[in-house]
Amino acid sequence: MTIKSNRLTAEEYEQNFSDIHPPFDSRESALVEANRCLFCYDAPCTKSCPTGIDIPKFIKQITTDNVKGSAHTIFVSNIMGAGCARVCPVEKLCEGSCVYNLLEETPISIARLQRYATEQALEKKWKLFERKPTTGKRVAIVGAGPAGLSCAHVLSREGIAVTIYEKESKGGGLMTYGIAAYKVTPEFCEAEVKYITSLGGITIEYNQELGVHFTLADLQQNYDAVYLGFGVGLARQLNIPGEELEGVVDAIKFIYDIRAGAYDQVPVGDRVAVIGMGMTAIDAATQAKRLGAKEVILVYRRTQEEMPCTEVELDIAKLDGCRIIWLAAPAMIKGEHGHATQLVCNLMQLGEPDASGRRSPFEMGETCTLEVDMIIKAAGQMPFEALVSGKQLQHTHGKIVTQMNGATNIPGVYAGGDCVNGGKEVVDAVQAGKLGAAAILEYVAGL
């Protein structure tokens, strides 16, 4: 057993990481699907969208060949509507609320229709928004992820000059660096960021990290308001013996390396164990398999009923040949010559629900041992507590405390997205950016 890169041919990598949810292959196919929509009054699909996209309206516009109008309807509510059409867990949001589910029929393919309209806008560079005259006000945003980009676009439309400070060399945040490559390609993410900033009035300063290249005090001094949208990203540690052995990596870094470089340069083991059952765990497991791992095992301490990922995501892992071990929690990692060779797990039972509402696992007193050469930790992410400590920002274990509109305890400083909620969907971050922008507009108007 060994960890190595360049396991597959170029053709195999291309096939394994090609678009997992291909778009409509023709205008006619999109029209057929759009015409299935019942255009419900007080539509449940719109209610279940965190950004409140008027879904019946944009679908109706597609049926009348008003694709540009459809894209505008989407973007006015969610400027990252193109990306969300690819990565949103629609089965538990808009499509999961479609009335066709009650009729035991296939729900409308809302995501594919949204993709149909928005990707044309990106490809054809439709200019769907005009900036209002400049107000002379300046706002700094930390993080060019979904929350920051959403906030920036709303502010810029209202004539505010926005500067985004981004620690990476590319924008997009989680979309660019934290999601499986077969869902969104780096090229698509770059095109989406360019489309958002093409409005004007938005400058992104790359390779600029809060606490390293500038401070919150610097931004407060030089700008009329500040929005913090730097997300989360610290992998939660397992805190078990052997975690320091070579071959034990965190899922965030593993996915980052896949997104940042060529597939053939990312090393993967023969037998890989992935700890966790959230979206990040699924992405890590499926991509490990698609990089050429012979066997991938997902290890989760609860049952399928309690898993954080959706059934659709789980099915992707199963179709890729990943195996799942339920009711098992990592207890120890054994190794030889400094390399991980075995994962010892405690077998678990479920008791009463914990604070999250899921039943708490407890040890049965038995163990199982997996022969592995690589272990990917995907047991959750932690906020950047060190980043917010000592800055007068009120926070709870690193999660910034805000009011409903994103206002922090410091006047003129707002926050939203994963750095506040601890990690939710891209669409939730987009909505947080909108709410923060609305509050900032009200704040700077009073200066």
UniProtKB/TrEMBL annotation:
Which GO MF terms are attached to this record?
iron-sulfur cluster binding; oxidoreductase activity
Any one Pfam family match given in the protein's UniProt record, by short name? Pyr_redox_2
Report the superkingdom from the record.
Answer: Bacteria
Q: Taking every annotated instance into account, which residue ranges of this chain make up the domain 4Fe-4S ferredoxin-type?
A: 28-61
- PROSITE patterns to which the protein is assigned, alphabetical: 4FE4S_FER_2
Q: What is this protein called?
A: Pyridine nucleotide-disulfide oxidoreductase
The species is: Niastella yeongjuensis
